[in-house]
Amino acid sequence: MKRILEARGLTKAFGGLVAVDDVSFCVQSGELLALIGPNGAGKSTCFNMLMGQLKPTKGHVLLNGVEITGLAPRRIWEKGVGRTFQITATYPSMTVAENVQMALISHHKKVYSMRPFARELYREEAIDLLSMVELFDQIDRHCAVLAYGDLKRLELAIALAHDPIILLMDEPTAGMAPSERIKLMQLTTEVIESRGVSVLFTEHDMDIVFAHAHRIMVLNRGKLIAEGSVDAVRRDPHVQDVYLGGGTVFGREHASGSPYQ
Ligand code: ADP
Ligand code: MG
């Protein structure tokens, strides 16, 4: 399988605290890779280095084999490392369709030819993307009035408008009700798989991780302590001890009767 995004010896120290410590991994093409670990494990720090928000203390990040370490976030994003679920990425006074049209215009670099805003520019493509994320019935509503879950689906459409090679999703379902979370993640998985986009995501809901990840990496105190298939990671006694304090969360689906085995 082709290596899409690769971290080599990625390290970030904040003063004396080594938040991410010599972490190496790669996301392969079409893969949904989950990065899990307890609070403070270093997941967001790791994401921030991959996206260019934080400069690594040591180590390298490669996209399709080309070094992107330390580039500005915008440059990394332009190279095809997309992000989802940033509420600030939408324009509340514009409609749902216009928001996606703006993203398409920016992706096709036509920002200077759009004065006044060309209402028809990329409208069909925008509607296709919005249908894909099941927002067709809301295309002409203003973003300001959207429900939280709809806004997140809109942000997925906006991210896809930029035709990313890989999407980085740090806790994509944070703040959502459990049933909405499962729905959003199912939709995300379907859309991503149909477009062949790779995904690296963090998520604290283990049911979601087990149901959707192709592979899981476990981070604890900045270090990767396990990596493998969903089954292998679930069964790993080291992971259960270190990360889950004796397997309480891993055992939860048996207690709750979750369908995600
Ligand atoms: P996670 O996302 O896994 O919960 P984080 O990456 O947010 O973990 O944090 C890892 C560790 O780094 C924590 O101990 C956190 O307090 C620390 N940390 C994160 N960002 C900073 C920062 N900007 N300055 C200092 N310490 C930080
Ligand atoms: Mg975090």
Keywords:
261 residues; alpha/beta; 10 helices; globular; binds adenosine-5'-diphosphate; binds magnesium ion
How is the biggest beta sheet arranged? 6 strands, mixed
In whole angstroms, how far apart are the ends? 26 Å
Order of helices and strands: EEEHEEHEHHHEHEHEEHHH
**Helix segment count?**
10
In a few lines, what is going on in this structure?
The protein has 261 residues and is of the alpha/beta class. It has helices spanning 43-51, 73-78, 96-107, 123-132, 148-161, 178-195, 206-212, 230-235, 237-242, 252-256, and strands at residues 3-14, 17-28, 32-36, 58-63, 66-67, 81-83, 166-170, 198-202, 215-220, 223-228.
Describe the structure.
The protein has 261 residues and is an alpha/beta fold. 36% of the residues lie in helices and 24% in strands. It has helices spanning 43-51, 73-78, 96-107, 123-132, 148-161, 178-195, 206-212, 230-235, 237-242, 252-256, and strands spanning 3-14, 17-28, 32-36, 58-63, 66-67, 81-83, 166-170, 198-202, 215-220, 223-228. The strands form two sheets. Strands 6-7-8-3-9-10 form a six-stranded mixed beta sheet, with helices on both faces. The protein has a four-stranded antiparallel beta sheet with strand order 2-1-4-5, covered by helices on one side. A hairpin with a 2-residue loop joins β4 (58-63) and β5. The longest helix has 18 residues, at 178-195. The two termini are 26 Å apart. Mean pLDDT is 86; it is low at 251-261. Bound molecules: adenosine-5'-diphosphate and magnesium ion. Residues 43-44 line the site of magnesium ion.
